[in-house]
Design goal:
The protein has 250 residues and is mainly alpha-helical. It has helices spanning 9-26, 38-45, 49-61, 80-102, 108-118, 127-147, 151-172, 178-193, 197-221, 235-249; strands at 35-36, 65-68, 72-75. The chain starts with 8 loop residues before the first helix and ends with a helix. InterPro entries: GntR_C, TF_FadR/GntR_C, Tscrpt_reg_HTH_GntR, WH-like_DNA-bd_sf, WH_DNA-bd_sf.
């Protein structure tokens, strides 16, 4: 047997710091747009400044934090433009994934796993419950992507859903959508296993549109989540935000 290389303790601590801070950001315990220092994060996590600094460098690469000269770091804000861009990408990719999946023969054990994941729910304002639900939701969508057999699509979906985590968390905070999402997911499964490619594509697109509306409504309701800097919004994004806001008020 070959020698097993030991992982440096500092490396383990930086990984731990990364996961802890990322969780705080995703769950909005560290509010979008707020500033934070290494010292504050050290207190929050119970870890030293060296692993915190290494973790912040990785989080910066992911676009979750930004360095602020002489002041520390700023948690990435949530903008309507971000939401619009991500959901535009989902609308391009996921309906086609659903169509491709519907063209495959799906083994019974895979169908059972999909239905188990689709049955998940959560309790509003319960962070752990919401986190567990989002994990199952991610696994549900990635399982459908895996049915295509296209490794590039699968990897793209993994990256996309990592970017979606915080948006989902904000969106689910305004009301419990468990029953609605169960119906949407079960309808998608039915279309896929029945080989109804066109229907699967339409169901996936409708679910994404509903999800986008949910997230934008939540962000507009929670003013601290919403970056109103007009320079960060393109014309389409601003029209989208205003249309959702007007519809909610009408």
């Amino acid at each position: 047997m070959g020698d097993v290389k030991a992982v440096p303790v500092e490396g383990k601590l930086s990984d731990q710091a990364f996961e802890m801070i990322k969780r705080l950001i995703i769950r909005c315990d560290l509010r979008p747009g707020n500033e934070v220092t290494e010292a504050q994060l050290s207190v929050l996590t119970g870890l030293g400044k060296a692993p915190i600094r290494a973790a912040l460098a990785r989080l910066s690469q992911r676009g979750l934090v930004f360095s602020v000269q002489r002041r520390g770091y700023r948690i990435a804000p949530i903008t309507v433009r971000d939401i619009t861009n991500i959901y535009q990408l989902r609308l391009i990719i996921e309906p086609q994934i659903a169509r491709l999946a519907a063209e495959k023969v799906i083994p019974p054990d895979v169908v059972e796993r999909l239905r188990d994941l689709a049955a998940a729910g959560y309790e509003k304002e319960d962070g752990d419950s919401t986190s567990d639900f989002l994990d199952k939701n991610r696994r549900f969508h990635l399982s459908i992507a895996q049915l295509t057999g296209n490794d590039r699509l699968i990897k793209l979906m993994e990256q996309l859903f990592e970017e979606m985590d915080r948006l989902f968390y904000v969106g689910l905070s305004i009301r419990n959508r468990s029953s609605e999402m169960r119906r949407e997911h079960q309808a998608l499964i039915d279309a896929i296993i029945n080989g109804e490619a066109e229907r699967a594509e339409k169901v996936a697109a409708a679910e994404i549109t509903t999800s986008q509306k949910m997230v934008i409504e939540a962000v507009l309701q929670e003013s601290e989540f919403f970056d109103t800097n007009i320079l960060e919004l393109d014309r389409v994004s601003l029209i989208t935000a205003n249309s959702y806001k007007s519809a909610r008020l009408s």
